[in-house]
Design a protein that fits this description.
The structure holds 2 protein chains of 2 kinds.
Chain A (H helix, E strand, L loop, with lengths): L4 E3 L11 E2 L28 H4 L2 E9 L6 E9 L5 E7 L3 E11 L5 E5 L4 E3 L4 E4 L5 E7 L8 E8 L4 E9 L34 H10 L8
Parallel strand pairs in A: 3-12
Antiparallel strand pairs in A: 1-2, 1-3, 3-4, 4-9, 4-10, 5-8, 5-11, 6-7, 6-10, 11-12
Chain B lengths: L11 H17 L1 H10 L43 E9 L5 H19 L20 E6 L1 H5 L30 E7 L2 H15 L3 E10 L12 E2 L5 E2 L9 H6 L34 E10 L1 H5 L3 H8 L36 H6 L9 E2 L2 E4 L6 E9 L2 H14 L7 E11 L11 H4 L2
Antiparallel strand pairs in B: 1-3, 1-4, 2-3, 5-6, 7-10, 7-11, 8-10, 9-10
Helix pairs in contact in B: 1-2, 3-5
The chains are: A mainly beta, B alpha+beta.
Amino acid sequence: MRKNITLALALPIAVAIGLAGCGQDDSKATGSTQTDGGSSTSAESSESAVDAEALSFDGAWVKAADDGMTAVFGELKNNTDADINLVEAKYADAEMVELHETVGDGSGGMSMQEKKGGFTIPAGESLRFEPGGDHIMIMGLKKAIKPGEQIKLDLVTADDETVEVTAVAKEYSGAQEDYAPGEAEGSSDDHGDHGKHGDDGKHTGADSEEHENSDQGDHGDH
Amino acid sequence: MTTEPGCTGFSRRGLLTSAAAAGGAGVVGATAGFALGRGAGSPGGSGGDGGPPRRDLDGANGPQTEPFYGTHQSGVETPPQAFAHFIAFTLGPGIKAAEAVRWLRLLTADAAALTQGQAPLADSESELAVDPARLTVTFGFGSELVSLAGKEHVPDWLKPLEAFSIDRLDRDRCKGDLLLQICGDDPLTLAHARRMLFKDSRSFAEVAWQRDGFRRAYGSAGEGKTQRNLFGQLDGTANPGPGSEDFARIIWGQATEAANPVFSARGEPPADLGAHLPVWMRGGTTLVLRDIAMNLDTWDQADRPAREFAVGRTMGTGAPLSGEDEFDDPDFTAVDQRGLTKISQVAHIARARDGLGPEVQIHRRTFNYETGAGGDSGLLFASFQADIERQFLPIQRRLAEVDLLNEWTTPIGSTVWAIPPGATEDGYVGQELFDG
């Protein structure tokens, strides 16, 4: 069974000094979950459960890809009683990472665009990253992300706190990134206004054929 | 058959139960709640008060789960489910230990989720995962996969069986580096699980062969009944019972700590049948999987006395021809009025066990198959035992030599698998091999 990915993020007094990254298989939780004070008023309970799991990323996975772009999914849960604003994600082996939101185009397709200002996860609530919906977009892969591999990303909050998360790579043929013609994958100059991204799961079989043939970003099949 | 003796009259409760089952809650109205409420605890059973058997209208079996993590893998000692998919993979080019471990981790994580009724990561049809209905996924390793961890880890028995004169093997059904035995009581759940595990595997391996099998559907015959194969025979009567000391010794190859172990009439099996298993297999066992074609057309030509003579058991109750009950111990010396043994020396059960010691026992977990009217039919003969040489081969050699049933059966596929122990909750199946 997959395990939660637990982030140590001391909120609202933001002094996150460690994290526990744990993928769906056997990687041990190695990070410290200690937080220094946090919202606790008791000196004795410096490791209260609330502090230790301020933000958790459950069921994190990334679409395996040889190169180009890919996306990270999972459920980001705010376990605190204050809102958390996720403003950035970082991945060492890619040229660029963006937080994307999607908007339906009225015909089963989804347009996606960078989420200005990032995502705010209300106190006690979750944000679900999923194919066809909001996601963490990785562009310009410098090395392949292979099925079964675990990658580490850093999530950055508006308070400039960084937490490391782990996602396992799975072969997946949906979540296709359908860039407009002429827009090279991984060219990070104009990703802020790139065009429509197809979501194969919402298209007919014929459509997905088309995407596979024309989409250099599709590296789902190995 | 399921009503209690002497309870033939109507009772008010039985009548209500019957009406609820026949008409549905909407028709019966207020009384239905009473009747169905009583039945909730024993879905599918008879009323126990003389009422006719009830149907399970609540989907009681859907949420049922078998454990995934543990000392042993599930799907061996687990009471057989209604359906099984066997799928064997051949390693793709360039797959080494690191890739194999990534593959096994993916399969383990997804099998763990699916068997507990949870959608794996990246499941596009997550709704199909919610009714596990006793889903189990059992991993078997072939020699190529094991050798990725080092050739010294490959046990000498992990290779094709010796050739038998009765074999007519299809080479395409005799290969594979990893086997998944996916079993469950719900075919839709099973199809989805297989699809997910297949998608996990495409980057690492190709499908070598696959075969689907079936037994009685859940609820049709009751738990723990011996299954019938497509010849109509009871199949598996001699199996050691799940949870018994016999099972622990014969299949897992180790004695339990039970104070006063009880053994079958076959006698006490040795406690060390698993001693030859490599360290990475402790808690595991071996699987010989034989695909046995059954010729239903020529079987049709055999009348009941001929069938029973060939098997050594009655077709109806499955009792040995020397006894009355299915589980009576066969008496191979009992004679009829003519002075002939009641069980022929060349009958199937005589060949399979007469004169063989208590260590020569196996656990057969069989599933029937057929590919349509007039198509292929047969039996997926999954035989689990701690020691192939001491337990399986003595039986197989004798059956190959002489067995009246050979007239109608033909082995067309044969594979041998190492069944690793169960995974720990933070680990993966095969971890003792690759990380050990």
